[in-house]
Specification:
Order of helices and strands: HEEEEHHHEEEHHEEHEHHHHH
Helix content: 25-40%
Number of helices: 12
Bound molecules: protoporphyrin IX containing FE
Distance between the termini: 59 Å
CATH architecture of the domain at 62-135 and 191-356: Beta Barrel
CATH superfamily of the domain at 62-135 and 191-356: Catalase core domain
CATH class of the domain at 62-135 and 191-356: Mainly Beta
CATH topology of the domain at 62-135 and 191-356: Catalase HpII,  Chain A, domain 1
Largest sheet: 10 strands, antiparallel
């Protein structure tokens, strides 16, 4: 995939001239000052200064691998996506797994959601599914995302993550109670990227050849089995081997122990959305499997490591707006915000031609746009016309939208998303708590109390605990007692 450079022959400058001395810079006389005419020295220092690009504002720390997706069930009744059109059909994929809050060099074994970003190189263009290892999220409106992430990252004054900020925001955003309960439970620190499930998390639109609409949620279940670390195990591993997840993924692929996931969807016919007991476009809620069962549709295997982490992982870009015919967005307000956010991040972080890089460009299709030029443009379009319509036989529009239109009504508004019959911020958090065994509950309480004990202000602490009490009275009571015991 990458363009290899010959390693035989003489060392050269960037412009290809042979280098005579790579150990000693040029000086005016032995022991004298260094000369401006030493272009090799200047070029090396200048290139070195520009080696880093801005790290991702979230999910900076991650690891990637290539593999394949294989269809195992007929889903043509639900979607006309070509890569899902036949049982047995294979599509190349690139996956990048990540933590959320840590910077580029942060340790892997931490309590944090894991990103689960996938790029399917389909014959109709690249389809990106940019999910997490959790089926839900902390908030349900993109307008809150920058504030939320500010509380997860470093405080402007202390330069560290602060429990006060974290629990202040969560306490004031009760819709986070479900995801926070998930995060401080057993699955909050996966043992590796191979031993966790993946979720598209949002609801997406599938449309079939007849134009029928279905709302769909994706689930990737690990075939390696779920394995997690306890708080104590993670603290030791994060110190001893900060790259534990990255190393595990690379080594398992190097030894031929390829990680696999079984892929399922939950499918809701569009006609059922309005009366469903939960708002189906609310990212803080799951669709219980009893309502919409998991339908197996495929397998994903990762079997090839990237050769160059910077080129293929750091510069990889995934966008929830990268759809293919038969797949589209839902009105989920978080997803809608993300449709803008990622492309914008790519243009800032990698540049306007990020989609031309080998890892990002379509592999099974060709990008035929009239977009041109910009930094690092490689001239791939030659002398072809750069406008449309044109009379020179250039690529033209298809008149076939990727996804189906969705009916809307009412005036523009800044209201909260509609509440369905059983919607509130606590119902599914309480259900999750009550689903846990006694020992799971005990670990959840201990993990959460440990983090809450770092909060310095009583009002922030009380408000945070109150949300868990509203989810389940026993949950709140035990948490309060555990925090009090830790605070002494
Ligand atoms: C409105 C809410 C959100 C916004 C504005 C947002 C924005 C971003 C941005 C700007 C990046 C960095 C992209 C880059 O530099 O290449 C990113 C990365 C990522 N986000 Fe989000 N995000 C949001 C919610 C979510 C949710 C709900 C999920 C999962 C369900 C998610 C999963 C990811 C993943 C997996 C990555 C890393 C992608 C990669 O490996 O390159 N994000 N997000």
């Amino acid at each position: 995939m990458s363009t290899h450079v010959e390693t035989t022959g003489p060392l050269t400058t960037e412009s290809g001239a042979p280098v005579s001395d790579n150990q000693n810079s040029q000086t005016a006389g032995v022991g004298g000052p260094v000369l401006l005419q030493d272009q090799l020295l200047i070029e090396k220092l200048a290139h070195f200064n520009r080696e880093r690009i801005p790290e991702r504002i979230v999910h900076a720390r991650g690891a990637g691998a290539y593999g394949k997706f294989t269809v195992t069930a007929d889903v043509t009744g639900y979607t006309r996506a070509a890569f899902l059109s036949e049982v047995g059909k294979e599509t190349e994929v690139f996956a990048r797994f990540s933590t959320v809050a840590g910077n580029l060099g942060a340790a892997d074994a931490v309590r944090d959601p894991r990103g689960f970003a996938l790029k399917f190189y389909t014959e109709e263009g690249n389809y990106d599914l940019v999910g997490n290892n959790t089926p839900v999220f902390f908030i349900k409106d993109a307008i809150k995302f920058p504030d939320f992430i500010h509380t997860q990252k470093r405080d402007p004054y202390t330069g560290s993550q602060e429990a006060d900020n974290v629990f202040d925001f969560w306490g004031l955003s009760p819709e986070s109670t479900h995801q926070v309960t998930w995060l401080f439970g057993d699955r909050g620190i996966p043992a590796s990227y191979r031993h966790m499930h993946g979720f598209g998390s949002h609801t997406f639109q599938w449309t079939n050849a007849d134009g029928e609409i279905f709302w769909v949620k994706y689930h990737f279940k690990t075939d390696q089995g779920i394995k997690n670390l306890t708080e104590e195990e993670a603290a030791v591993l994060a110190g001893q081997d900060p790259d534990s997840h990255q190393r595990d993924l690379r080594e398992s692929i190097e030894t031929g122990d390829f990680p696999n996931w079984t892929v399922y969807v939950q499918v809701m016919p569009a006609s059922e959305a309005a009366d469903y007991r939960f708002n189906p476009f609310d990212l803080t809620k799951v669709w219980p499997h009893a309502d919409y069962p998991l339908i197996p549709i495929g397998k994903m295997e990762l079997n090839r490591n990237p050769e160059n982490i910077f080129a293929e992982v750091e510069q990889s870009v995934f966008s929830p707006a990268h759809f293919v015919p038969g797949i589209g967005p839902s009105p989920d307000k978080m997803l809608q915000g993300r449709l803008f956010g990622y492309g914008d991040a790519h243009r800032y972080r990698v540049g306007i031609n990020a989609d031309h890089l080998p890892v990002n460009r379509p592999h099974a299709a060709e990008a035929r746009t009239h977009g041109r030029d910009g930094q690092m443009y490689d001239g791939r379009h030659g002398g072809a016309k750069n406008y449309e319509p044109n009379s020179f036989g250039g690529p033209a529009q298809t008149d076939k939208p990727l996804w189906a239109d969705v009916a809307v009504s009412g005036a523009t508004t800044e209201s909260v998303a509609p509440s369905h019959a059983e919607d509130n911020d606590f119902v599914q958090a309480g259900n999750l708590y009550r689903l846990m065994s006694e020992s799971e509950q005990a670990r959840l309480i201990s993990n959460l109390a440990g983090a809450l004990a770092g909060v310095t202000r009583d009002d922030i602490l009380r408000r945070a605990i109150e949300n868990f009490r509203k989810a389940d009275a026993d949950y709140g009571k035990r948490l309060e007692a555990a925090v009090e015991a830790l605070r002494g």
